[in-house]
Each structure stands twice: as structure tokens, then as C-alpha cells.
């Protein structure tokens, strides 16, 4: 078999592996180069998301939620759970099994679709050649008509909190604590910090989250982020806003964190500290100096709206390019690029990439929030429906939060759906489907929603936009 491919993908995360599968489905001779080595010492496909991101974090979020519910949420149903305990190594083993199931699944999908899996580090050379260096340092050159760069991202580290073997860790280390830390510090109140902080809080850790910004969840709708801050604080997570970490000092496995906030210089001590201050593209040693592909000073590869780089036939997708660092964004870019290589005119709707924070309650949104629309001078109508008035949520004893639908005041077209509460991610997806087809709030209000479901909260919020909600007093009467 010759070493010339129609498509060579570098990186087998959700951007790269999906691009490779789609390209192969379209009849293109495709190879994917991946260097990640899993816990068993063998190459593992699936990237950050499957190995140390979305999937293992959700496995731990689900285990810890079950424990928390058994401890604090069962009594109200008349269920007693005396003598409740949790076996942390067993919880971690379950997580690892799930990871293996899914990374192995990608290997099987590559085989089924005829994608050639190449182990090693890929580097783009001039003329769309890819140099692959295997674990023994042996290099091979493969040629491609098209190259897709999908090398993903890495956690950012900050000088005041250098990582250590087992006290100061990044998100990957935070998936591996062998016991529940008594006191846990988290730097960064972003999605990853909140999710991982929640896992260990539910299992009993005292959690303090340091956030340099004064504003909590700045990208979310303000009404939703205010509710979230209230709820997390009630859950016992201490979220310190305007608190910038300036240094750390480890003595006898205890880390003392120095930080400054409105009250000046302060210190707090912890058993473990998670650094979750964001991620940056992983593009080191990815491009030869004459590859022709450009990136900015942070390593973000420049691409156009269709993920094409400045070199014809070379594309880049996922966390390595501009836009939200989300698995579903990476995957859809992968599909778009594969289809465009095959001659289709596929484009992606970047305005409707949903965001989700998998805490409890979940927080999710799609489209624009109220403050963004106000800044843009768009006149809007807003409908809000609290889960406290939703039968299914109350029956489940999970009735915190709300659904908020924002529509253009002139056209009634839905511009944003924002949810904090049970099933937020799934509800927002329903909003996203409607929005993709240009739904109005009235359209959503006219649809039949099953009773009793938490989805009815979306229905009622859409009705509330025009003052027609049935199960809550309308702010605006029509
Ligand atoms: P990656 O998944 O990072 O994959 C890139 C791959 O390329 C890696 O396997 C890497 O080894 C390989 N690679 C890099 N350079 C080379 C090279 N030169 N040669 C060969 N191989 C190379 N997103 C969500 O949407 N939902 C979530 O719930 C979610 N949870 C997360 C939780 C955590 C703790 C973390 C850390 C992230 C989470 N994310 C989540 C983000 C998500 O993981 C990323 O957005 C997604 O993985 C990006 O996909 P990608 O394909 O661009 O890159
Ligand atoms: P995200 O980029 O969404 O993962 O969030 C990371 C968060 O970490 C951001 O909100 C940053 O403001 C915050 N952050 C970065 N550096 C520090 C620091 N030294 N101390 C406290 N918070 C920080």
C-alpha cells in the first residue's frame, strides 16, 4: 500500500477522529496520526475528551451525585441510608472502564470505516507531507492531498501554582484523587473548576474556589449566573470572586495558597489544589517552520469560517483553532472539513453552539443572553418559568432554577434559551433545534409538550415571552 492518502488527520480527539471517520465514509483514503498513550501503556484514541475530559469527568459527576443524593436527598422520599459509604478506588475504576470502552470504541470505528490508525507524533512539513515519529524515535513521511490539524489543547499552568506529583494538580490529576481531600482549593471558577470542585464537594471535601474576576460565569446570562452562584454557595462551595492567586507553598503535603482580594493579601491551606485556569492550543512541534501554516502568539492556528488555513488543502479544527473549546464544536468542524474536502458545500452555524456546565443543577444555554442583546441594542421580550412550578421537577425533588427564553420583540424569533435546573442540557438542545429552524416563541408555545415533563418549563417560558404562560403569573399580560 502506498503511503499517499487523500486525507491525513493529526490528532484523534473529537475533532480529528470524527473528521477521519466522515472522510472515510465519503470514500477518501484516510489516515489518522495519534500519539496519546493510555494508562495501559498503549495508544488510546479519543483525545482529551474521552481520556481525561468530558467522559471521565461526567463519570465522576454521576458517581458523586448518586452518593450525595443517597446521603442528603433520599430521606425526603422515606428512604434511609444508614451506614452509607463510598469506595473511591471502585469509583475511579468504574470511570477508567468507561474511558476504555469509549476509546476502544473509536479504534473499532476506525477499523469499521477503513481509517488507517498511525501511532506517533505528527508534524506538518512543507508540501502537505506529514512526518510521523514513533515512540522509538523512528520517523516516516506520509503524503496527503489534504491534511487536517486536530491537535487539541492542554491545561494552562500559572507560575504561582506549579504542578506537583500529588498536591497541586491540573484537571487530569483531579480525576485521580485516591481519597477525598478534607480541604480542596480550586483556582478558576470556569466550567472545569466548577465541575471538578462539585465532584469532590459532593463526596465531602470542603471546597474553596478562587476566581480572579469579580463576575461569576461571565459568559452566562446574568439572571442564570446569579442563581448559580446562590445555589453553589448553598451547596457549601465557597466561591471567592475577585480573588487572584499569587503564590503557593507546600509543606508536609499541605499547600498554602496566597491570594489577594478586596480585603488584601490572604492565605488559606488545603490538602489538594486544582489549577483550572483554562486551556491553550497544543500546537508545539506540530508545524515545520516552512509548513506555511500560521498561528498567533498563543498557538491558535489561523483558519477561516470553514476551518481552512492559509495553505490550500490544509485545515485545522477543534481546540487548536478559534472559538469555544468544546467537543461538539470540534466534531462538527471535523465533519464540515471532511465534507468540504469531498466537494460538498457544508458550513457550520457557529451562532448555535450550545454551552453546558454539568454541575447540579446543570447550567446550559444557546444563542445570545439578555445583556449581549441589550448591548447590541436589540429590543427583546423575555419569558421565564421557574422549575418550582413544574410538576415533574417538584415530584423529583429537583425544582431549583428556571428556563429563560429570549425573543426579538419585533419578530418574536427566539434569540436565546438559557436554563439552570434539571435536564438543562437536554432542554437547551430542544431550543437549539427550534432556533436552527428559525422558531418564534409563539411556535414553541403552540407545540404539544408531554405532561408531566421538565420540558414543559421550556414550553411555559416560550409562552411567557408573550404573556401567555399558564402555570405562572405573567409579567406581561396579553
Ligand atoms: P483533543 O481532544 O485535545 O484531541 C487532540 C488529540 O491530538 C490528543 O489525543 C493528542 O494526543 C493528539 N495530538 C496532539 N498533537 C499531536 C501530534 N503532533 N501528533 C499526534 N497526535 C497529536 N467539552 C465538552 O464539549 N463537554 C464536556 O463535558 C467537556 N468536559 C471537559 C472536561 C475536562 C476535565 C476537560 C479537560 C475538557 C472538557 N471538555 C468538554 C473539552 C473537550 O475535551 C475539548 O473541547 C475537546 O476534547 C477538543 O477536541 P479536539 O479534537 O480539538 O482535541
Ligand atoms: P475557563 O477559562 O472558563 O476555564 O476559566 C478559568 C478561570 O480561571 C477564569 O475565569 C480566570 O479568570 C481564572 N483565573 C486565571 N488565573 C487565575 C488566578 N491566578 N487566580 C484566580 N483565578 C484565576
TrEMBL record:
Binding locations of NAD(+): 188-195, 211, 278
Active site: 451 (proton acceptor)
Gene Ontology MF terms: dihydrolipoyl dehydrogenase (NADH) activity; flavin adenine dinucleotide binding
Record localization: Cytoplasm
Main location group: cytoplasm
Note: The active site is a redox-active disulfide bond.
Protein name as it appears in the record: Dihydrolipoyl dehydrogenase
Source organism (scientific name): Halopseudomonas laoshanensis
Annotated gene: lpdA
